[in-house]
Every structure is written in C-alpha cells, then in structure tokens.
Amino acid sequence: MTRVALIDYGSGNLHSCARALAAAAGSADEIKVTNRPEDIETADRVVLPGVGHFADCAAALAALPGLVEAMDTHIVRRGRPFLGICVGLQLMMDFGLEDGRTEGLCWIPGKVAALEPAPGRPVPHVGWNEVELRGPHPVLDGLGPEPHAYFTHSYACKPRRIDYVAAWSHYGDPIAAALTSNNLFGTQFHPEKSQKVGLTILSNFLKWTP
User: Fold this and answer.
1) pLDDT computed for residue 72 by the predictor
2) Which pLDDT does position 118 carry in this prediction?
3) Less packed terminus of the chain by CB within 10 Å, N or C?
4) Mind giving me the DSSP string for 130-185?
5) Among 74, 125, 153, 190, which one carries the catalytic annotation?
C-alpha cells in the first residue's frame, strides 16, 4: 500500500485536495490527512496544499510541533516524493514578500513576489491559463496539447535558476507554473480544480519515482 500524507495546517483547500487525490489514487493508495510528524515519517509521499497569505500559512505550519523538522528529514534528506500546491509550492522557496519578508522552507532557492497589475491584467490572477512545459517531466506526462489549469494567486515564485522551472504560464509576463528539484514538485495552479489535467497530474505524482 502507498501511504500519502496530506498535511493539515488549516489550509482552505484541504478537503478538495483530499477528494481529488482519492479520485486520482489507485486501490492500493491510502490518503491520510494529518498534522503528525510520525505520519510524515511513515508516508511514501507527502502533499502540502495551500490557499491564502504566505506569512499566515508559514506561521501555521511552523506552529505544529515537530512537523517542519519531520518534513526536512524525510522529504529533503531521505527523498520522499513531495507535491506542493499553490501556497504549498510557494512555501518551498527561501522567502515570501507578502506584507514584509517571511522565511519559507528554503528547499528551492528564490523568492515569492507580487504579480504586477496592468491594463487587462488584474491582480489577483484568477482563472484558466495554458501550462507550457519546459521539457518532459513524469508528473506532467499525458496532459495533451495546450493543457490548461486553474490559477488563483496574487504572488508567484521567482526561482534563482531557470532549471527549477518545469512549466510556465503567461499572464502578461511569464509565471512559473510548476517547479521541480529532485524529489520535489510544486504547482502554482490548483490540480484539484483543474479537471482532467489536474487529475492526470495527481495520478502521475502518485506513481512518480524520482
């Protein structure tokens, strides 16, 4: 049985992520909603959802005793496959700049900065946008031509190196739609709201062996 830990730290999209993971999972997958470090230790895969304010989400995650330490040990050092969704992706960066500077998990070098509004380009960015793959990646297999995913965000990741970017989207300027590093993968968009494309990504993640 593949054990998937879906981290519960008060994020607003927790239940929709749980439903989407269950829909994408095979009969041998167990989806466990948890905030316990010992469940991270025994999980085969870990998912961090996220909706809202970077600083609030960072504080909520840090407030769970031993959880960030367990994530560092079993995800970063021991290589458990990890998926971050929206703010869950953003928390993988060094820091975010929403209402001042807030430290992230420091797993991918870079920052999270505000989108710039422009005529015809309001912020927050909400809606469907094309996801343009930089190259092949197992989590992005089988999406078909011109795949679209659902975005809702006011901030976006700015990694230090382009090779962390697995996919782009465009909202005036390019947006990092997905980042990856070794066993880490994250999406700025919401797979749980992205219908067939999102379910394909979640299914791919549940089979991914980085």
Assistant:
1) 97
2) 81
3) N
4) E-EESS--GGGTT--SS-EEEEEESEEEEESSGGGEEEEEEESEEEEEEEEETTEE
5) 190
How far apart CA 183 and CA 139 sit, in angstroms, is: 11
- In Å, what is the CA distance from 140 to each residue of 72, 89, 96? 25, 16, 26
User: Structure tokens of 41?
Assistant: 């230790």
Q: Could you tell me the sign of the dihedral formed by the alpha carbons of 25, 28, 34, 36, in that order?
A: negative
Q: Which CATH class is domain 2-207?
A: alpha beta
Number of helices followed by number of strands (H, E) in the chain: 6, 14
Q: Say how many Å lie between the first and final Cα of the chain, rounded.
A: 18
What are the pLDDT digits (tens) for 11-44?
Answer: 878 999 999 999 999 777 899 999 999 999 999 9
Model pTM score: 0.96
Single out the catalytic residue among 17, 57, 86, 157: 86
Is residue 17 annotated as part of the catalytic site, yes or no? Answer: no
Q: What is the mean pLDDT of the chain?
A: 95
Residue 106 appears among annotated catalytic residues: no
What is the DSSP-derived secondary structure letter of residue 107?
A: S
Summarised one tens digit per residue, pLDDT across range 113-147 is 999 888 888 999 999 999 999 999 999 999 999 99
The phi and psi torsions of 146 (rounded to 5 degrees) equal 50, 55
